[in-house]
Specification:
This protein is an alpha+beta fold. It has 3 helices and 13 strands; from the N terminus they run βββββββββββααββα. A 6-stranded antiparallel β-sheet has the order 2-1-11-10-7-8. Strands 4-3-5-6-9 form a 5-stranded mixed β-sheet, with no helix packed on it. A two-stranded antiparallel ribbon has the order 12-13.
């Protein structure tokens, strides 16, 4: 059987390598086979990982925050393939073969340069010239959602009944609600005094 290693690629202990010689339990408790004590969202005994042919078997041990294999929450035993990701708490682990790890290849995700760069200084005015402040661009242009069909958004032929439920329309109707209540109360008061 191939020897496997779990590499912590994100989280408080990023860079840590966890060999899988046999079944291991990961949790926050110091008595667990593998203790990840810096991750406060882990349960004391969170998950059991058992190496098997073609990957590993992952079993959630009734954790409070759940266990996710390749982005999907598991409720029973699940298969974790080589180079698959396991999320427990805020820690992301990737299953690697021992040979790949020994070659020096790593799955650690680098910190984006925008997060490590220093901020520019404010504009400095000197007689005769101004140095403008350069602000980093963080906004991304809005893109069309690809997970919702255009017909569900009320665009194109066959627009669905979801169109009136979009947030813009709901908020617009909510703004008119106080006026409607005021008019209703005014009519009720006029009827009350008119019928007396």
């Amino acid at each position: 059987m191939v020897d496997y290693v779990l590499e912590v690629v994100e989280g408080p202990e990023a860079g840590r390598l966890i060999p899988l010689p046999g079944p291991v339990e990961i949790g926050r408790d110091a008595g667990a086979s593998v203790a990840l004590q810096q991750d406060e969202l882990l349960s004391r005994r969170h998950v059991r990982i058992t190496p098997e042919a073609g990957g590993a078997r992952v079993e959630d041990l009734g954790s409070r925050n759940g266990t996710f294999v390749d982005g999907d929450e598991i409720h029973g035993a699940a298969h974790l393939a080589v180079d698959g990701e396991l999320l427990v708490g805020v820690t992301v682990l990737r299953l690697r073969t021992a040979a790949t790890v020994a070659s020096g290849a790593t799955s650690l995700m680098p910190i984006p340069a925008d997060l490590t760069a220093l901020r520019p200084l404010p504009a400095v005015e000197t007689p005769g010239r101004t140095i403008p402040q350069v602000a980093p661009v963080l906004a991304v242009p809005e893109s069309e959602p690809d997970y919702v069909p255009a017909s569900a958004l009320g665009r194109g032929p066959g627009a669905s009944a979801l169109f009136p439920l979009l947030d813009v329309h709901t908020k617009g109707k909510a703004k008119g609600a106080p006026i409607g209540i005021f008019v209703l109360l005014a009519v009720a008061v006029m009827l009350y005094f008119g019928l007396r």
